[in-house]
Amino acid sequence: MNPTAAFQKLQDKMPEHSHVHARAMYDYCLSEEDRGTAQAQIKIVRRVCLDAIRAGRNAEEFRELLKRTYLFAATDDLDSYMTYLEWNRKAEDKFYLPRRKVLKRVVDHLQGFVDGTLDEFFISMPPRTGKTSLLMFFMTWIIGRNPEASNLYSAYSDVITTAFYNGVLEIINDPNTYHWKSVFPASSVVQTNAKDETLNIDRRKRYPSLTCRSLYGTLNGACDCDGILVSDDLISGIEEALSKDRLVSAWNKVDNNLLPRAKETAKVLWCGTRWAEIDPIGMRMDLLINDSKFRNRKFEIINIPALDEQDESRFDYPYEVGFSTEYYHQRRASFERNNDLASWMAQYCGEPIERSGALFTPEDFETYNGVLPPGDPDRIFMAVDPSWGGRDFTAGPVCYEYGEKIYVHDVVYSDADKSVTRPLIIEKIKAHNVTAALFEANKMTEDYPDFIEEGLKKEGYRLSITKRAAPNDKAKEIRIFDRAPEIRELIFLDNGKRSKEYQQFMQNVFAFKVQGKNKTDDAPDSLALAIDMVRGVRTPIATAFKRPF
User: Fold this and answer.
1) For the chain, what is the domain count?
2) Looking at the structure, do residues 145 and 62 belong to the same domain, yes or no?
3) Axis crossing angle, helix 35-55 with helix 3-13, rounded to the nearest 10
4) Which domain, by its residues, includes 455?
5) Residues 39 and 139 grouped into a single domain
6) Which of 140, 57, 133, 136 lies closest to 99, judged by CA?
7) Which of 50, 5, 64 is nearest to 31 (CA)?
8) Cα–Cα 20 to 30 A to 25, which of 86, 254, 465, 504?
């Protein structure tokens, strides 16, 4: 009797929860020559084992057999591989199983790469929901299945590619945590190069089993990819997304440097935050969807937003490794307060939003690496738009003036109440040796600078403090628009040199619109206030204190 018929006979006559029959069915799977048939049968054995374990019948024997079913299927079935790889880990330490209810959908599509049903796959998920870790697991499966193929992983920075490279090596080389060696017992890492971020399985090859390289690194000649090409977060964030020139530059890098590394038979996986319609992912999607020359290219697009149709979290994983509905509601509220729902939509909903009507874009501004010009500045001053907390932010750039050039070297930007922001401003003034400060004040904040003055005086520090009445919202918008040319002449820290506070400050600047309602405009207003200090605009309320040094 052939294995298929014998398997079917055992299945038809199998007593409930019989370990002997289940083991015999498993043995027939081992002897089945047709791998597709064997894979289908092993899943039947797996269901028998799970039912028996749930019923408490011969649980230990069935658990051991269950483990064998996952090992049997692991080389061909990604879901089985992901499960078996972490078999001995504690439930709360496992990556895949706690997240499987969401990630299984992605895994099924990744399976399509090896089953021949997909050529390209686009996936968008919120930050820290397991996407990049899933790609690491997937890549260890790919290079274990076919060590002769060359695979390429690319992202916007070397930091990301290095982390990915190290993660893949950890999964392969740590037998105490992962069972990669059990799945691929005849394979091993024979060559690694941390500098070039390459590794070879089984033998040294001109084009490695895996190459990790940033989009802006040396791609030419680095890899002739005939396996899987993975692009993961090719856009660094909101600032790059707001610049059409930088988006075009990124796509040119992808189209001229990255995609040509892939042979015609290679599969392409696109992952990342959809910041803009014309980001590299969007450009590639447009080609596949709208250009008839790509009609034979098999592709799928999946976007998994943070919140479902009931406004509840899709990523509320067990063991507190995910994110609750409350967490996502709080994140959304934070973006709303900062008038930056576009970034919420991009990062957490997978929907690129074009920011029309923005007064400032990243390409407007000159930046520097944090190193100020030699010599003492002509003046160090600070302009502060204070608030009591709540909906508004306290915003204040610390400016270093060298002739006609003004460097925004630091900022205060916080929606905390005055008990937090006033001491913070005092510390910034002292840290930078600020010699002059202008505070905008309304009825609520009129005594705000008085606290600053008293606090500094107690520490023997004096400076010129000026107060000015705050305009209404309309007058404020007009002032920002009027000062925009000079604001564009300010010099800001490079994106990679900014603190989180500084980055949020800049996001608020870029979110300001000439038309439409601005929920918060505190950052651009504080810059307009700084320009007034440069212009020497007269103010209605002033008290001066000379610094004694």
Assistant:
1) 3
2) no
3) 20
4) 362-542
5) no
6) 133
7) 5
8) 86
Per-residue pLDDT, 180: 98
382: domain CATH number is 3.30.420.240
400 and 264 housed in the same domain? no
SS3 assignment, position 190: strand
Q: What CA dihedral angle connects 512, 517, 523 and 526, to 10 degrees?
A: 110
b/e for 101-122, b at 16 or more Cβ within 10 A?
Answer: ebbeebbebbbbbbeeebbbbb
> Where does a domain end: 57, 74, 91?
74
The pLDDT mean for the chain works out to: 88
Q: How far apart are CA 378 and CA 525, in angstroms?
A: 23
* Contact indicator for 386, 522 with CB cutoff of 8 Å: no
Centre a 10 Å sphere on the Cβ of residue 224 and count the other Cβ atoms it contains.
Answer: 15
Name the DSSP class of 259: G
Report if residue 177 sits inside a domain. yes
Q: Give me 420's structure tokens.
A: 């937090």
End residue of a domain, out of 74, 89, 113 = 74
Among left, alpha and beta (phi > 0; psi -120 to 50; other), residue 208 is beta
Record the tokens describing residue 486, joined without a space: 């000079």
